[in-house]
Write a structure and sequence with these properties.
Elements: E1 2-6, H1 12-15, E2 16-20, E3 30-39, H2 42-49, E4 66-73, E5 85-88, E6 100-104, E7 108-110, H3 117-121, H4 124-137, E8 145-148, H5 154-165, E9 169-174, H6 177-186, E10 190-193, H7 199-206, E11 212-217, H8 221-227, E12 231-239, H9 252-258, E13 261-264, H10 267-273, H11 275-290, E14 298-302, H12 307-316, E15 322-325
Parallel strand pairs: 8-9, 8-11, 9-10, 11-12, 12-13, 14-15
Antiparallel strand pairs: 1-2, 3-4, 3-6, 3-15, 4-5, 5-7
Helix pairs in contact: 2-12, 4-5, 4-11, 10-11
Length: about 325
C-alpha cells in the first residue's frame, strides 16, 4: 500500500515521504480499514515537527482521524463486520495518511449516513471536542452568547455549528476576509476579522457591555489575554489549545474579581476514563447530522501526493475550511 511516512522531524512539506509499505495486520481488539478519507488536523503538523504530546517512533505515518471501510478483523472483534463504513482514530505510528490503517475497536464508530466520506472523516475530533467543551464542560444554555476564536479552523468551525444547534448566538473571530466569509456560511451571527477589528469592542457592543457567556479558545496567547476583557459575569473561558504557540499565565485574581471560570478540556482523556460518554457523544452528533444541524465544511479534497503541501498550509495558517485527503482515489 502507499503511505506518507516521516523519517526525520521537521516541516511537513519537507519530511512527509510517499512510500510503498506492507498493509498492516490487525492485532487483538483491532480492525484494519481501507481509508476512504482522512482529515488534516493541526496535530498532524505537530507530529511532523515532534511537538505533539504523543511522539510515535520513527518512521511513522501521521493522520489522526478517518472515514474507512472495515477490511480485516482482529481477534475478539465482534461489534463490526468487514465492509462496515466507520469513523474514528487510527493507531499511531500507523496513522491515516495511508491507504490502510489499524484502529482499536474502542475508537471505531459507525459513520453517520447523512455525511459523505469526506465530511465524515472530519467529524470525529473537531465535533467531539466541541460537544464536550460546550455541553460537558461549559453547560451551554440556549440564548447565551459564545465567542469562538479561530472560527474558520477545524475545532472552531465545529464549535460554531454546535453552538448554533444549541440555540446560542455566536461571534466568530478569524484572520482575513476569506475566513470571515467562511465563518458566516457556517452560521456565525457576527464575524470579527482580527486583522482589522478589535473583538473585545465588538463583543461588548453586541452584548450591551455584558460580555460573552462562553469563550471557546483553541489559540491561547493574546487571544486568551484579551478574552478576559470581554467575558461576562459568571462566564466560562474554555481552554482548548494553544495554536498561537504561547501558553498564557493567567492572573487568577482577575477570575476572582470578575466571577468567571477557566475550564480546561483534554478530550483525549475521556477516551480513557469514560469511553461510554464518547459513544454517547457520537450518537448525539449523528442525530444532529441527520437533522442537518451540523456538517463539516470540506473546502479541499487532496490526493496523497498533494497532502504534504496541504498539511504545511494548515500549519502556516493559510487554509480556509477543512482539508481532506482520499488515499485510495484513483487506485
Amino acid at each position: 500500500m502507499r503511505a506518507l511516512r516521516v523519517h526525520e522531524l521537521g516541516e511537513p512539506k519537507d519530511v512527509l515521504r510517499l512510500e510503498e509499505v506492507p498493509v498492516p495486520e490487525p492485532g487483538p481488539g483491532q480492525v484494519v480499514v481501507r481509508v476512504r478519507a482522512t482529515a488534516v488536523n493541526f496535530p498532524d503538523a505537530l507530529l511532523c515537527r515532534g511537538l505533539y504530546q504523543e511522539k510515535p517512533p520513527l518512521p511513522f505515518s501521521p493522520g489522526v482521524e478517518l472515514c474507512g471501510e472495515v477490511a480485516a478483523l482482529g481477534e475478539g472483534v465482534t461489534t463490526v463486520a468487514e465492509g462496515d463504513r466507520v469513523i474514528g482514530a487510527p493507531v499511531l505510528p500507523l496513522g491515516s495518511f495511508a491507504e490502510y490503517a489499524p484502529m482499536d475497536i474502542g475508537r471505531v464508530f459507525p459513520a453517520p449516513p447523512a455525511l459523505t466520506d469526506e465530511e465524515a472523516a472530519a467529524l470525529f475530533i473537531g465535533y467531539q471536542t466541541g460537544w464536550f467543551a460546550l455541553h460537558r464542560r461549559a453547560a451551554l444554555r440556549e440564548g447565551e452568547t459564545v465567542l469562538v476564536h479561530a472560527a474558520a479552523g477545524g475545532v472552531g468551525s465545529a464549535a460554531i455549528q454546535l453552538a448554533k444547534a444549541a440555540g446560542a448566538r455566536v461571534i466568530g473571530v478569524v484572520g482575513g476576509r476569506a475566513k470571515a466569509e467562511y465563518a458566516r456560511r457556517l452560521g456565525a451571527d457576527i464575524v470579527v476579522d482580527r486583522h482589522t477589528e478589535d473583538f473585545v469592542t465588538v463583543v461588548k457592543e453586541a452584548t450591551d457591555g455584558r460580555g460573552a457567556d462562553v469563550i471557546y479558545d483553541p489559540v491561547g496567547g493574546d487571544s486568551y489575554t484579551r478574552s478576559t476583557k470581554c467575558v461576562a459575569f459568571e462566564g466560562r473561558i474554555l481552554i482548548i489549545g494553544f495554536a498561537s504557540g504561547t501558553i498564557p499565565t493567567p492572573g487568577l485574581n482577575h477570575a476572582l474579581i470578575k466571577n468567571y471560570s477557566l475550564l480546561g478540556l483534554h478530550w483525549g482523556l475521556y477516551n480513557k476514563r469514560d469511553p461510554a460518554l464518547v459513544a454517547e457523544c457520537h450518537e448525539e452528533l449523528t442525530a444532529l447530522a441527520d437533522r442537518g444541524l451540523i456538517k463539516p465544511a470540506v473546502s479541499e479534497t487532496l490526493s496523497l501526493e498533494e497532502l504534504p503541501d496541504g498539511v504545511q498550509r494548515l500549519a502556516d495558517g493559510s487554509t480556509v475550511g477543512r482539508l481532506v485527503a482520499t488515499p485510495l482515489a484513483g487506485h
